[in-house]
Amino acid sequence: MVSFEMNDRKKIGLGLTGFGIFFSFLGIVFFFDKGLLAMGNILFLSGVMLTIGLKSTMQFFMKRQNYKGTISFGVGFFFVLIGWPVIGMILEAYGFIVLFSGFWPTLAVFLQRIPILGWIFQQPFVTSFMDKYRGKRVPV
Prior knowledge:
Helix content is about 75%, strand content about 0%. It is an all-alpha fold and about 140 residues long.
């Protein structure tokens, strides 16, 4: 098993990422409040940069296979900032799915190993659903 060193920079990055997701959730709950959504986007991106590093972040977003997701996420971010949060969030959601669909197998294994919730994700109907989509990229 590969060890994952957790230094202070990565802890802060994970915290910022978590706050970014939380603020984005609040922005959606409060009828697409553009201030909360913009704050969530900024916190999420800065958290990802701190967690994996600036160079790795740039390499991830600039991969040829991630161009559609990067452009969609960026245009959605711009639309949220200029005041069109619904259109922006639709574009961001599409970009997020395209960008992070490759992480589905890792997420599925992680969810199955959570002490209490993992039992739900280990049930046959859930595992068959997860196996159906494991390792497949969203067609773009």
